[in-house]
Every structure is written in structure tokens, then in C-alpha cells.
Amino acid sequence: MAKGKTKIIKKKDNVLIICGEDKGKKGKIIEIFPKKDRVLIEGINLLKKHMKPTQKSPQGGIIRQEGPIHISNIRLVCNKCNKPTITKQGMTKEGKKVRVCKKCGEIIDKV
Predict the structure, then answer these.
(1) DSSP state of 46
(2) Which of 6, 11, 67, 84 keeps 20 to 30 A from 34, CA to CA?
């Protein structure tokens, strides 16, 4: 298990899928499940779910929704160099911890 990797990524981060059938696609993180080491990515790993007619959706039918992907199958994309990267931890002048791109040295977090 990749315990601790959930600290590296956050909601609304741009990520690249590095393996699986969606390999090479980019998307934005919608939700993170830290206990299961999985994430939901917008428009990636779409699954079909059969819905019964209910009060909210009287039509029912087949709905397409995102399925979770394991954290080890994604890489964070740097905003500056636009390449998948591994992050390292850095400090700002105010002493705040931030994520830093290993390839270009750019701060990924909004300070």
C-alpha cells in the first residue's frame, strides 16, 4: 500500500495517468479516499451504473460516472513545465511547508 502518498496530492490538482487503459490522459482530482489509497479524476475511468427510477430521477436508466483509480497509477503535473513530476517538500520565506517540482523547482502550492 502507498500509505502517505495522499499527502502529496490534493483536490483540484492536475494529474497524468501513468498506467492502465486510460494511460496518457490528464484530468483534475475530484475526490481523495486516503484509507483506500484511491482518487476520483474528472472524466477518467468512466463506469456505467444502472439506476432504478426514483423520485429524484423518474426516468432511471444507465448513468456514466467516474470510478476510483489507485494513487500509484497517477503523477502530479507541474503548472510551469507541464510535465508529470514527483514532488519534494520545501519551505517558503515565511516558514510554510510547500510542494516543489523536482524537475523545474517551481512551487506547486498557491502561497
Answers:
(1) E
(2) 84
Query: Which three cell numbers mark 15?
Result: 494529474
Task: State the fold for domain 5-77.
Answer: SH3 type barrels. (2.30.30)
Task: Determine the 3-state secondary structure of 33 from DSSP.
Answer: strand
* Number of residues that make up the chain: 111
In this prediction the pTM is 0.79
- Greatest pairwise CA separation for the chain in angstroms: 56
46's grid cell:
468512466
Q: Tell me: the pLDDT tens digits for 25-81?
A: 999 999 999 999 999 999 999 999 999 999 988 888 999 999 999 999 999 999 888
Name the segment(s) of the chain with CATH classification 2.30.30.30.
5-77
Closest residue by Cα to residue 100 from 60, 13, 90, 73: 90
